[in-house]
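# nightly structure sweep
# worker-07 picked up a monomer target from the shared queue
# config: single-sequence mode, recycle default, output format = structure tokens
# input follows
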Amino acid sequence: SFNKMRVLEELLWFKERGLQPECISCGKKHDFCCGHLKSRGAYSAIRYDRRNTFLQCNAYCNRQLSANIDGTKHSRGYKAGLAERFGAEQAKEIIEYCEAQTQTVKYEWQELEEMRKGFNAEIRRLQKILD
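# output follows
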């Protein structure tokens, strides 16, 4: 639910600015998912943090290149995409914040269920706006 909500939030961000949605890592404009800057497994404290997730192409950057953090000879990479989108200073703040969140968080099922309900409510709201 969180990932779906983040994709919709990102699509709305682009729509509000009159921009074509694009992958944070490579700039492609199709097949989107929620891409995490820092992995969900190693950085459980920010698994559900908006500052750790941005629109990313699903098959290429997210799956094949494990988020494409530093880029390839054909793509800019996640970090450079943050700088391009938000400016160097804000990108640096986002990256430093995410890198500092190393504590392990174990969620109780009740917490996850409440979070899921909130995410699903936000999904319904965003779908109405985007339709």
